[in-house]
Amino acid sequence: MSVVLAVCEQRNDTLRKTSHEVVTGARRLADALGGPVEAVICGAGAVQGSDQLARFGADKIVTLTSAGFAKYAPEGYARAIADRARAGGYGAVVFAASATGKDLAPRVAAKLGVPLAADVTDVTVEGGAIVATRPAYAGKALLKVRIAAKPAIVSLRPNVFTPVERPKAGTVETAVTAVTAGRVVVREIKAAEAGALDVAEAQIVISGGRGLKEPANFKVIEELARAFGGRAAVGASRAVVDAGWRAHADQVGQTGKTVSPTLYIAVGISGAIQHLAGMRTSKVIVAINKDKDAPIFKVADYGIVGDLFEIVPRLTVEITKLHG
Amino acid sequence: MKIAVCIKRVPDSETRVKIAPDGKSLDEAGVKFVLNPYDEFAVEEALQRKEKAGAGEAAVFCLGPAAAQETIRTALAMGADRGVLLQTDRIPADGIETAKALAAELQGGGWDLILFGKMAIDDYNHQVGPMVAELLDLPCVTAVAHLDLEPGKGVAEREIEGGIEVVEFPLPAVLTTDKGLNEPRYPALKGIMAAKKKPLEVKLVKPGQGAIEILAMTPPPERKEGKIVGEGPDAVPELVRLLQVEAKVL
Amino acid sequence: MAPKFQGVDFYDINGLLNEEERAVRDTVRQWVDDKILPVIGEHYIEGKFPKHLVPEMAELGLFGANLPEEYGCAGLNNVAYGLIMQELERGDSGVRSFASVQGALVMYPIYAFGSEEQKKKWLPEMASGKVIGCFGLTEPDYGSNPAGMITIAKETKDGWVLNGAKMWITNGSTAHAAIVWAKTGGVDAVESIRGFIVPTDTKGFSAKDQKGKLSLRASDTSELVLQDVHVPKDALLPKSGGLKSPLSCLTAARYGIAWGAVGAAMACYDEAVSYAKNRVMFGKPIGGFQLQQARLAEMLTEITKAQLLCLQLGRLKDQGKVTPQQVSLAKRNNVNMATDIAREARRLLGANGILAEYQAMRHLANLESVYTYEGTHDIHTLILGQEITSLSAFN
Q1: Interface of C with B in 26-45 (CB under 8 A)
Q2: C-alpha C167, offset from chain centre
Q3: Who has the most CB within 10 Å: A96, B55, B164, B248?
Q4: What does the pLDDT look like over A20-78, one tens digit per residue?
Q5: Binary contact (A143, B216; C-beta < 8 A)
């Protein structure tokens, strides 16, 4: 029997939602392997919401606590998780390919001397071996890889493993660890603008491109995002990021972020291959562009041709009505 | 400042991906290879830090085929002092094997900083930098978008979901660089000429193939043909209806 | 970041370039993508040269790039130099013209005809873009026939006094120094033509921009007036003498133009292909219609021929074997084909083709100047005619 370790995340002692996805992915893998899921969270003390993980299929929820674990402690977390993984005879260790997961998973893999399949969009078991699918070349190709190691370490691309409720017992325990934070210390987290969602994690992403003509015009996009009541993030094409209109954090594309939201709205973006690579795995794509021949319409599920400065405010009104 | 920069030769971001007959790899015919864009930030940072210190070395290391000499020379043309190619025809799919090869080369080099791009735009692994740090037991910060260095320590900022993490670390350290850290310079023409005369050492290596095996490489699923809902703002109500009723995303 | 433009290379001409030539091309290609293309349409409409880019061009080493390193230049071979011109003109003929003038018409004559002191004084300053130069040969009444020039330099006991006027002078109003060609004997003494380095702040020197241009709008073109302009003895380029001196500068510049035209043609072709694949009419991309395919096939054929022509011309130049007539053939052919391609591309783009948002019309308008300057198409025809028959048809 193989236990699957689901490495969950907290911020400010509160479970991060991406952890639901991690447990969902871990559950899928555990079912295929015929074993239980153990969710593990590093923190300074109790983590709010960790008990919810049972709903998504965690058989056991363990909080590894240390005084130095309040904020993300790269070296301490890596040691604690690696120690746990080494001790428990796990078949797989599952991370989120979040900012933290991307930092933490390779460290744990290196400590254990096993490979990491990063940013996977699917994971299955074939002939007893764990097989993961992961995008390469910015999603222009998919790689199917077999991981011949125990544990197999994978990190899951955010927003792909839609949380599925699979209630389990979810016994909750706390284990105090003697591991300290380590040499690399997170001094503070500067919060982004209140309520601003990250494009990589948002359910809805509305991106703007050169068609907006000037940076100030992004307000039409921001207003639309607000109409979705805090569920939407504002993204940008490489062209406008390079021009300094928007922060790099907002860039969607091969040299920016790869996003997979439920709804992606591309406004005034022609759809360069670079950009398409970053958003083509979105569930539903809407394009608004004045040029009906723009390549973006080739990947869009729905398109409106015309002046974005007329269309987007109208859409904002309609969405507000819906939520109002 | 003695700085090592680890770089990779990757297909240009505009490459149209064609899958090779083996069904597992990229068909490289006609593909243009470039210095991985994220590594440009690492090279630039090394050059700026060295220039600021007024002394030291910026050396580049690359695991790759013989053709990666050209990639190394791009970094030399930007201003790096010397290059080392760990030459192999097969870059392992398993990042830990690449990390082992690089760590073995970097071990004992007396580096103040070892820099990587935060990820390669071909395999999207974003793992070799922190793995090298683990293997060398060095502190590491990944995806650095802002950096302040003082003697013996540094403060880096890295972007996380909804915020910026401010991270303190002692030197020497391994850092991986993100866009926003700096503005990489163009290799100037004089630099291109000078690069020919800079030392470039080639060492044949045989990295292990690791425990990840590529079974198949496939094109992403085609998105089914979409529809133009209409023209102008009058099409908006219909779009909203479709998003609710047909796509069920609202 | 790698350049967005992927080049036009049907015959793997890339494979005929060495690594350093490719690296030079890619650097300039990238820079043009990043810095020229985003701003050129606006500058063109406003009739302004993007002067803010001069320091960056200097930093990259674009000025006099084929001159030796000891004078602050990049010391590239002539193929690499040609590739620079190709990529700059892919951006805009006006930007390429700026670099051509600075390098081939100002730095080159100082290098070829100047004293060691002059070279040491001027070339590093010009390579670094701190001193911008212009080239004064053409006069209002003497364009294709420079031998007839009436600008005169009279020797005085401590120097020279220049009188005359020059026309169609690229960079004239922005230049810090002008290379002025003048007769030091009588107006009939063609063999007395010599070159002078004239600082533009010298008393009696004035430059006025020519207004109302419908071509090369992102480039300054001026008229120079020299009225009793006194310069010291060391303003004279000592090794210059006769019409062959300025003509050798023109050969150097024409060489770059032959390459530049290929760049403009590549830009138009690239845009036309992408437009033809995406623009849908009668239910399919217009690239699927025979008429457009014929246009594109013709463009690709002509570009490929011109590329090979340039490359061999460059190799000959690097071997010291090139003749001015070979350069004439390349300038004549390539600019003509580029103009044709720009026009066909403009037509393929339909109504969109007249917008500054697209490149074709701007290149087309520019190329009409390039067709005319540095030896008109017709003059090059006569140069070749004379080469073939040994009979002059000039007069």
Answers
A1: 27, 30-31
A2: 16
A3: A96
A4: 999 999 999 999 999 999 999 999 999 999 999 999 999 999 999 999 999 999 999 99
A5: yes
Instruction: Give the position of tokens 């969607």.
Output: A252
Is the CB of C69 less than 8 angstroms away from the CB of B193? yes
* Percent of residues, chain C, with pLDDT higher than 90: 94
Q: Which residue of B has its CA nearest to C34?
A: B186
**Nearest-CB residue to C75 (from B12, B40, B193):** B193
pLDDT category of residue C278 using cuts at 50, 70 and 90? confident
- Residues A173 and A38: their CA atoms lie apart, in Å, by 11
Active site residue C20: no
In a mutational test of the C interface, the residue from B13, B182, B186, B228 whose CB has the highest number of chain C CBs within 10 Å is B186
Q: What is the DSSP letter of C106?
A: I
Nearest to B162 among A197, A256, A298 (CB): A197
Q: Smallest Cβ distance to C23: which of B12, B40, B77?
A: B77
Closest residue of B to C68, CA-based? B190
d(CA A41, CA A14): 10
Tell me, what's the pLDDT at B226? 83
- H or E segment and range at residue C196: strand C193-199
Percentage of chain C lying above the pLDDT 70 cut: 99
Q: What are the structure tokens assigned to A319, written together?
A: 């969405």
pLDDT tens digit sequence for C108-133: 999 999 999 999 999 999 999 999 99
Angle between helices C360-372 and C244-278 (to 10 degrees): 160
Cα B65 to Cα C14: distance, rounded to the nearest angstrom:
20
Residue A167: asked if its preceding bond is cis (omega within 30°), the reply is: no
Residues B25-42: tens digit of each pLDDT = 999 988 999 999 999 999
Q: Using CA coordinates, name the residue in chain A closest to C38.
A: A243
Structure tokens given for C274: 């992408």
Give me B3's structure tokens.
Answer: 């700085």
What confidence score (pLDDT) does residue B162 get? 80
Q: Any CB–CB contact under 8 A between A256 and chain B?
A: yes
Question: Which phi and psi (to 5°) does residue B169 adopt?
Answer: -155, 150
In angstroms, rounded to a whole number, what is the distance separating the alpha carbons of residues C304 and C153?
46
Under a CB-based contact definition with an 8 Å cutoff, are residues C86 and C262 in contact?
yes
Sequence-distant (≥ 6) Cβ neighbours of residue B150 within 8 angstroms: none
User: How many Cβ pairs closer than 8 A exist between chain B and C?
Assistant: 58
Angle, in degrees to the nearest 10, between helices C37-46 and C360-372 = 70
